[in-house]
Design a protein that fits this description.
Blueprint (H helix, E strand, L loop, with lengths): L2 H16 L9 H18 L2 H12 L5 H17 L9 H15 L12 E9 L8 H16 L5 E6 L24 H10 L6 E6 L6 H15 L1 E7 L4 H6 L5 E4 L12 E6 L5 E4 L5 E6 L25 E7 L2 H4 L2 H13 L3 E7 L12 H4 L2 E3 L6 H5 L4 E4 L6 H9 L4 E4 L3 H5 L5 E2 L2 H13 L1 H18 L5 H9 L1
Parallel strand pairs: 1-2, 1-4, 2-3, 4-5, 5-6, 6-8, 9-10, 9-12, 10-11, 12-13, 13-14
Antiparallel strand pairs: 7-8
Length: 483
């Protein structure tokens, strides 16, 4: 480690020892130095004191709101990969503090409640609207398809991409997470609607990518939505400032893409659970949870688009393990990669395929050549079920998310092995869950080496598959329309 890096660590240690409460944060240069040194310190040492310091900065009303929103989304990304940090901070309090500031600063804070809704219009809000292969986007599109196919009273649908995670970091921060973005041209949007077979409803798309001021961006979209006076609003994701601001003038339904209860302040929080019917539970005088049956709410009926191992140059006689995710380079830790390496070293006729964005080149100098040559990347695929069906087993690392991929793997009737935390584990029975990567190594090897055990595990997955297959959004949409 060079002298510059050591100096940064020394500065961060002094900051943490002194305490954020005793440091003047109004000075932009001082704040940038603090944020960079602490974020660097956390990346190197995973010191939980850094997270606690960031929490205090996030709650400080004297800190620029754009920076506070940015830091909030860093918390979301870090906790997505390591839920343990939530034991040291209160992410709900952080979000509430930011939302209070936005509410007080908004030019539309006095906006009145909508009295007469346009029954023909529905609005969807998301933090990121990406490609057909992106799970939250696919969930949103599958909801729209349900409306398109089954609910003729809705004629127009509007998608608002709030892009609250900034495109560019508004402050000095080491290795920041920024939002994914693709250029949503008219041609590309038409292509997405055609791919999803959304052909009856008129669907419109809005974002404000070039606006860097978070408050102005939110107000611009807020005014547009208020003018539409939609019949209902559905927000995709655990929290969304724009959606919570809309809750000031109409009812909003928040559907979290993980199985945790959304921390949003909207009137209705929607959760997929192991239930057979829809149920509403009052939390307090301002919020309710709507429980809906867990299922694979996707657009995976397009079985005309299927894949073979030959087209990806994967040997047909290889026992193939799939790993799926939208941000695999962030989600796959060194410990998890080490377990994968050990599995491939022990089992010479086994390979691993990464489905999603992953640059395996970063592993080239870390793995034996024979092991590296049995790693395959096929990127994002429109038909996730067909892509996972190329494999003989699905492996899930330690993370909160991954539930969409886990459900797809269950529907493929292959063993799904997961660490016992996060969304995927909640879908599984105990025999498919492990408490550590060393246990994962042992279980995977046992299944590979014992064909009778492999068949038994496939049979048990089929039982789960029957439980989750064939669900759609009709029940939820109908419930909303009847409110």
């Amino acid at each position: 480690m060079n002298n510059v890096n050591l100096n940064i660590l020394k500065i961060s240690k002094e900051i943490l020892d002194t305490g954020i409460d005793k440091i003047e944060l109004n000075n932009k240069d001082i704040l940038n130095n603090i944020l960079f040194s602490i974020s660097y310190h956390y990346d190197i040492n995973k010191d939980i004191r850094c997270i606690v310091a960031f929490e205090k900065i996030c709650k400080n009303i004297n800190v620029d709101i754009n920076i506070r929103i940015f830091l909030y989304w860093q918390f979301v990304r870090i906790s997505f990969l390591n839920k343990e940090i939530l034991k040291s901070i209160n992410i709900k309090e952080i979000y509430d503090s930011i939302l209070d500031t936005v509410n007080q600063s908004s030019a539309l804070k006095e906006i009145s409640e909508i009295k007469e809704k346009n029954k023909q219009i529905a609005v969807f809000i998301t933090n990121q609207f990406l490609s057909y292969e992106h799970s939250p986007t696919k969930i949103l599109l599958s909801m729209i398809k349900s409306i398109n196919d089954k609910f003729s009273e809705i004629h127009e649908i509007y998608i608002f991409n709030s892009t609250e995670m900034p495109k560019i970091s508004p402050c000095s921060y080491y290795k920041p997470s920024v939002f994914n973005h693709i250029n949503i041209s008219d041609e590309y949007f038409y292509y997405l609607m055609k791919l999803a077979s959304i052909d009856r409803c008129e669907v419109n798309y809005f974002d404000d990518i070039d606006e860097t001021n978070s408050l102005k961006k939110i107000d611009n979209m807020l005014e547009e939505i208020y003018t539409l006076k939609p019949n209902f609003i559905i927000s995709i994701g655990g929290s969304n400032i724009l959606a919570d601001m809309c809750n000031n003038f109409t009812d909003v339904y928040t559907y979290g893409t993980t199985r945790d209860t959304p921390i949003a302040k909207t009137k209705y929080l929607v959760k997929s659970l192991n239930t057979t019917k829809i149920k509403e539970i009052l939390i307090n005088d301002k919020q309710s949870i709507i429980e809906i049956p867990q299922g694979f709410f996707g657009l995976e009926d397009k079985y005309d688009e299927s894949y073979t191992r030959d087209e990806f140059e994967i040997p047909n006689d290889l026992f193939l393990i799939s790993i799926v995710g939208n941000r695999l380079e962030e989600e796959l830790s060194d410990k998890f990669i080490d377990i994968c390496k050990d599995i491939l070293i022990k089992n010479k006729n086994t390979g691993i395929v990464f489905i999603g964005e992953y640059n395996k080149e970063c592993l080239k100098n870390k793995l034996p050549k024979d092991v590296y040559n049995r790693l395959y990347t096929i990127g994002f695929k429109n038909n996730l079920i067909s892509a996972i069906a190329l494999s003989d087993m699905f492996l899930n690392p330690k993370r909160i998310g991954g539930g969409y991929g886990g459900l797809a793997a269950i529907l493929c009737n292959i063993p799904v092995i997961s660490i016992n935390t996060g969304d995927v584990s909640e879908l599984l029975s105990d025999e498919f869950k492990v408490s550590s990567y060393s246990e994962m190594f042992d279980l995977v090897n046992s299944i590979i080496e014992n064909n009778d055990l492999y068949i038994r595990m496939c049979d048990k997955i089929k039982i789960l598959s029957n439980k989750y297959e064939g669900k759609d959004w009709d029940l939820l949409i109908n419930y909303i329309l009847q409110k």
